[in-house]
Amino acid sequence: MLPTPALIALQFLTRLPVRLPGMPEPEQIGRSLLWYPLVGVLLGGLLLALHGLLGETPALLQAAILLAVWVGLSGGLHLDGLADTADAWIGGHGDRQRTLEIMKDPRSGPIAVVVLLLVLLLKFAALVVLLGQGAWAGLLLAPSLGRALLPLLLLTTPYVRAGGLGAALAAHLPRQPLPWVLASHGLAMLLLGWSGLLALGAAALAFWLLRRAFLARLGGTTGDTAGALLELGECAVLLALALLV
């Protein structure tokens, strides 16, 4: 039986059938952040298994199937955050309060649709290229590093929206063990050689650029911007591997 924080992380980050033993304590919600990188490794492992089952399926069709399952496993949660962030960033015209207000609107405007299409198209194209090179590294590295960026963001960036799960995570995140967990995860990625180093560099660059933008516009992060970071971080890793490996 997995500990409750691990179950919380699985329930939040995936659509896998997970049942919690009871209402979690705030401290358990915070400690679930320690498991985010491993949830990413699990998702990558499931994608690798599917890649193996698909065998000699043509690259275009296999990439489409892998991406569809990838989105399905996460329930599109982070794509929703990306869409809300894109709408708010353009519609907010540089104003912090207006940006936050638009981000709360559940409706998606044309900017959100365009950004979602572009990000999914870039992921799909990168997967097609990687399938011709041996896709296992990208399928493992992108989801695991993407989910490692979320606790890193909450650890280093103020959370600026009151209420919700994001606020509970930020308020109760385990500040002492979390840096060690993230550092260990990064070192483990380096065991994959050049692919791991390149993926870490791409994820770090995406993190630095987006965190700087979040601080400049909002003074911190929200749940939506965290979701946008995950999606764009995954995309950056896939593109880096497809272009440079």
UniProtKB/TrEMBL annotation:
Entry's transmembrane regions: 33-53, 60-79, 111-136, 148-171, 191-210
Cofactor: Mg(2+)
Bilayer disposition of the protein: Multi-pass membrane protein
Compartments, record wording: Cell membrane
A single GO cellular-component term on record: plasma membrane
EC number(s) given by UniProt: 2.7.8.26
Catalytic reaction annotation: alpha-ribazole + adenosylcob(III)inamide-GDP = adenosylcob(III)alamin + GMP + H(+); alpha-ribazole 5'-phosphate + adenosylcob(III)inamide-GDP = adenosylcob(III)alamin 5'-phosphate + GMP + H(+)
Protein name: Adenosylcobinamide-GDP ribazoletransferase
Major place of residence: membrane
Organism: Aquipseudomonas alcaligenes (strain ATCC 14909 / DSM 50342 / CCUG 1425 / JCM 20561 / NBRC 14159 / NCIMB 9945 / NCTC 10367 / 1577)
GO MF terms held by the record: adenosylcobinamide-GDP ribazoletransferase activity; cobalamin 5'-phosphate synthase activity
